[in-house]
Write the structure tokens for this entry.
Amino acid sequence: MLREQQLSKESTVYHYRLLQRIHSNKKLICIYWGLLAVLYIRDLIHIQPFYLLFALIAIPALHTLLICLYYMLKEKRPLSQWTFQYQLPWVGFIPTNYIALRRIIKLHLHILWITVVICGCFFPWLPLDLIARCLIVHVWLMLPRYIVFYRFRRHHESGLLKINKQDTSCYAQ
């Protein structure tokens, strides 16, 4: 026997239909982290252990700063629905609620190019190896996200993205 719930006149009911879900593959994630570990071992052999560590701290911090600036200046909304996550493919500052797929792709295009330009601006003053590590970490962080965006390309116009620890889902409203 089903009981009907009483809803007030002010309440809004949202119905989302799942369009596609991408589960996180643990083996691929381990291999992907392994690529970074191999690069760090190479840096240890060449006595440059701090370049990669600096890039692993600076690039996610720069991404977070760019997201905050984008939302404050362009969207004019608070970031209360965003959190920091350390799990691939979404390492960094990510939304915890539904977000339009088109909007997050646009945001990541901004992050992709602005970070490359900022790294290039430091070329005269920083060692080339440090800039290269920053760009490698930047691409390493962004590539899994762009793979997810590519797999959701059919739902670009109307899709809503929901990011969880185990999967990334695309919904239609």
Q: What stands out?
A: The chain is about 55% helix and 20% strand. Residues 49-75 form the longest helix (27 residues). The helical segments are 26-45, 49-75, 101-121, 128-151. Residues 101 and 153 are 9 Å apart (CA to CA).
